[in-house]
């Protein structure tokens, strides 16, 4: 990744002026994408700090206050309990979304009858603002874990289905024909062609679904069921503790980044032949 | 001309096309297409047949029907006396688009047909390795297809077809996507492999030179409806793999290629649909 970025950057500076590859420490720092990421972050933090100090508002913490809040949170058992509670809904809901969504999407791509069954509902899920479903879920399921799990599913499953379906559809038709000509059965076509061929797009769907699942997990806690992470955010807002409030948000962002990075790693590992070629939303 | 292939004249008939018809049904506003009309033709065991014609003449459809990938409407296709009802182990196809699995190593691509047939791993890898060597790709067996050039990828396609040891090799414009130099090399190699193995080959092409260079006989097809207009014997001596350059410089080669071009050109210029369109145009102008 970093080498690709530096190659692009080198290419952008013009072929004639490209420096010969060198391995000195200075050039490695110069070439690393992390160098630029850190510079960008430093600029961001500075602007934040200056703005918050100038605004001098109860609701806008400075960068340093946020870091302090983060440290307080990380040393408090309450934080871990909240994250554990919220993530229960994520783990259960996201697992169900993956287990149901992938086969549903794969099957829909090849068997029109199966697609006809749930296509209307999939379309509804794709276009409806999900938050609008929350009151309905709560009325029918109460404020227990069931509603939170279902919301994570409802958030995550559409992109998983759509990407899995697109994954099978984008498998080169000549490969299916080739397998058929060598006598492959439908089962063999699935195992040898369709599943490996759709894997990159399926994994993209899983990664995007995870991001949306995390969104769903936090949204329902903020809007309706004040437990876990959402409860922490609401509580710190009520107490006018902006440093802690921002700290919670930063923790959620960090969790999401870690999880999505893990899935991306898995994606590269399972489908090394097609880095970055999969579909997005 | 037939004394050139005296040996094959005694060989038995392997493939029979018997008044084969195929119509693609109408789609939307389009008319139904008569892809093949009354195609009858016999191929002997061990023959190298090239099929030549302009696009839309049904040559690929003919091959796909023989491969068992396409249904037909009437008539019959028989291999060794048996009607073709689907793909079979006696036929293997080489595709214009190579059709390699991008996630599978070269050795696994070559062994794919054997894998589908349940040949044990050690045995199929052993056989795949021998074919990889035969097509000159030794050392690349652990690479992915994406790391190979087009010419190398089609060698893999050829090795995969040969790996299942078919009686009949079906080749659908296999070198059509390759550049001139690569194409020449692969033609030489295909000839050498064929001369050593004497499989029956049906080779679709739109190149006159390729049709003459490779084939014992050239099946000339014409579009709308797709039909066979002539079968041309190629009076060039075998083996040809080592003498391609001499052949291409010979007067026979020039004469037969010129004749083919003459006829193909006529097909393109005076095909019925063009004539009708011209007439319709004239009528419109007159009124």
Keywords for this structure?
A: 281 residues, mainly alpha, B: 287 residues, alpha/beta, six-stranded mixed beta sheet, four-stranded antiparallel beta sheet, 11 helices, 41% helix
| Low-pLDDT ranges of chain B | 1-6
- Helix percentage range of chain A: over 70%
How many helix segments of chain B? Answer: 11
CA-based gyration radius of chain B: 20 Å
Q: Give the averaged pLDDT of chain B, no decimals.
A: 87
Say how many strands of chain A there are: 0
Short description:
Chain A has 281 residues and is mainly α.
Walkthrough of the structure:
The complex is a heterodimer of chains A (281) and B (287). With 281 residues, chain A is mostly helical. In chain A, 79% of the residues lie in helices and 0% in strands. Chain A is built from twelve helices and no strands. In chain A, helix 7 (134-141) crosses helix 8. The radius of gyration of chain A is 23 Å and the shape is flat. The model of chain A is unreliable at 1-18 and 276-281 (pLDDT under 50). In chain B, strand 4 (74-79) and strand 5 (82-83) form a beta hairpin. The N and C termini of chain B lie far apart (54 Å). In chain B, the strands form two sheets. Chain B has a six-stranded mixed sheet, sandwiched between helices. Chain B is globular, with a radius of gyration of 20 Å. In chain B, helix 5 (121-134) packs across helix 6 (150-163) and helix 8 (208-214) crosses helix 10. The chains are: A mainly alpha (281), B alpha/beta (287). The interface between A and B is medium-sized, with 20 and 24 residues.
């Amino acid at each position: 990744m970093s080498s690709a970025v530096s190659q692009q950057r080198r290419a952008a500076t013009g072929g004639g002026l490209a420096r010969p590859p060198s391995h000195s420490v200075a050039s490695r720092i110069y070439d690393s994408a992390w160098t630029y990421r850190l510079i960008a972050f430093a600029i961001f933090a500075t602007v934040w700090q200056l703005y918050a100090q100038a605004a001098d508002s109860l609701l806008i913490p400075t960068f340093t206050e946020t870091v302090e809040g983060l440290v307080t949170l990380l040393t408090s058992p309450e934080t871990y309990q909240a994250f554990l509670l919220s993530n229960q809904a994520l783990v259960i809901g996201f697992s169900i979304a993956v287990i149901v969504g992938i086969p549903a999407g794969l099957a829909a791509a090849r068997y029109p009858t199966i697609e006809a069954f749930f296509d209307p509902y999939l379309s509804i899920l794709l276009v409806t603002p999900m938050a609008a479903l929350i009151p309905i879920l709560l009325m029918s399921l109460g404020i227990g874990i069931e509603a939170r799990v279902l919301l994570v599913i409802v958030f995550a499953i559409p992109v998983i289905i759509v990407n899995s379906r697109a994954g099978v559809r984008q498998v080169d038709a000549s490969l299916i024909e080739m397998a058929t000509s060598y006598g492959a059965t439908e089962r063999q076509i699935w195992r040898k062609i369709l599943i490996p061929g759709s894997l990159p797009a399926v994994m993209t769907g899983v990664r995007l679904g995870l991001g949306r699942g995390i969104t769903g997990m936090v949204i329902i806690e903020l809007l309706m069921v004040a437990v876990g992470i959402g409860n922490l955010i609401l509580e710190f807002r009520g107490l006018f503790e902006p440093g802690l409030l921002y700290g919670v948000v930063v923790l959620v962002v960090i969790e999401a980044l870690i999880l999505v990075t893990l899935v991306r790693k898995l994606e590269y590992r399972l489908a090394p032949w097609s880095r970055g070629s999969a579909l997005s939303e | 001309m037939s004394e050139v292939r005296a040996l094959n004249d005694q060989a038995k008939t392997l493939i029979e096309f018997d008044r084969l018809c195929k119509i693609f049904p109408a789609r939307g506003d389009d008319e139904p297409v008569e892809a093949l009309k009354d195609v009858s033709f016999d191929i002997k065991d061990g023959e190298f047949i090239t099929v030549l014609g302009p696009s839309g003449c049904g040559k690929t459809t003919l091959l796909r029907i023989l491969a068992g990938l396409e249904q037909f409407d009437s008539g019959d296709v028989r291999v060794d006396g048996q009607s073709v009802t689907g793909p079979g182990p006696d036929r293997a196809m080489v595709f214009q688009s190579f059709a390699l699995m991008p996630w599978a190593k070269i050795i696994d691509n070559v062994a794919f047909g054997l894998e589908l047939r349940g040949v044990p791993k050690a045995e199929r890898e052993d056989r795949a390795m021998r074919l990889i060597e035969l097509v000159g790709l030794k050392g690349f067996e652990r690479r992915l297809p994406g790391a190979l050039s087009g010419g190398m990828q089609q060698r893999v396609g050829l090795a995969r077809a040969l790996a299942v040891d078919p009686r009949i090799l079906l080749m659908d414009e296999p070198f059509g996507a390759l550049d001139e130099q690569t194409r020449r090399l692969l033609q030489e190699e295909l000839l050498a492999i064929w001369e050593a193995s004497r499989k029956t080959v049906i080779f679709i092409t739109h190149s006159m030179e390729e049709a003459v260079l490779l084939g014992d006989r050239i099946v000339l097809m014409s579009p709308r409806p797709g039909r066979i207009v002539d079968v041309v014997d190629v009076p060039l001596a075998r083996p040809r793999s080592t003498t391609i350059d001499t052949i291409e410089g010979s007067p026979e080669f020039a004469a037969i290629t010129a004749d083919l071009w003459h006829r193909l050109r006529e097909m393109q210029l005076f095909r019925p649909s063009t004539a009708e369109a011209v007439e319709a145009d004239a009528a419109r102008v007159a009124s």
